[in-house]
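Memo to structure team: turn this sequence into structure tokens by end of day. - J.P.
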Amino acid sequence: FDNETVWDTQTNLMWAAKDNGEAINWYGAKKYCQTFRGGGYRDWRLPTAQELAGLYQENKTPRKSPEKNPLHVTPSIALTACCPWTSETRDAEAQYFDFTDGTIWWFLTPGTSVNRVLPVRRVQPP
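Reply from structure team:
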């Protein structure tokens, strides 16, 4: 859409059309989603790993991130690095999704700024 969002009509998820553009820790990513106002909406959140996996497209010609990593992501979404945070945590770890190979990883210190954030929200079908 012109409002910098992407609506996946198959899953009824609306995504920010691009990530936040810089390294952010998991706590900052959660807050970023809570205050994100893309498209004028206020109900943005961190995505699950399964939701991010829905954007992964292994058979697409990979785009390169600024770090020269191949990113297998739908062309509708602009990522500035490989790995956005997910909503999942366990003990002192936070999860992220890697668009270079479609894997899910746990990061031991979620307070470290290493990944990006890609907000998502649920859309009610018309």
